[in-house]
Specification:
Order of helices and strands: EEEHEHEE
CATH class: Alpha Beta
Strand content: over 45%
CATH architecture: 3-Layer(aba) Sandwich
Radius of gyration: 14 Å
Shape: globular
Helix content: 10-25%
Strand order of the largest sheet: 1-2-3-4-6-5
Number of strands: 6
CATH superfamily: Gcn5-related N-acetyltransferase (GNAT)
Distance between the termini: 24 Å
Number of helices: 2
Structural class: alpha+beta
């Protein structure tokens, strides 16, 4: 979780997490959220890099993620982490991504 140093209990500005899939422990569902007022400043990239590094250190090789099809920033963020990226339209304006992480 990312917080503002001036009042961390009230000013969470971003969070990232991954959870291993029960049927494939080398794959984890990943999610990152950054407060609207701080988007576009690199916080999402910082969280993504740290998530991916920790996941790889713990044996995760792939992230899966679901996001809005028109969220270009989120798509670029996941592509940055990928050695390979598969994208599938999930319907209702959403895409499902499978991201092979760099070792």
């Amino acid at each position: 979780m990312a917080e503002l140093p001036t009042a961390p209990a009230r000013n969470g500005v971003g969070v990232g997490r991954w959870v291993r899939l029960a049927d494939d422990p080398t794959t984890a569902e990943a999610a990152i959220v950054v407060a609207d007022r701080l988007q576009g400043r690199g916080l999402g990239s910082l969280l993504a890099d740290r998530l991916a590094r920790e996941a790889v250190n713990q044996g995760v090789r792939r992230f899966s993620a679901t996001m809005l099809s028109d969220n270009e920033a989120a798509h670029r963020l996941m592509a940055r982490l990928a050695t390979r990226l598969d994208r599938r339209r999930a319907g209702f304006g959403a895409d499902e991504l499978m991201v092979d992480l760099a070792a």
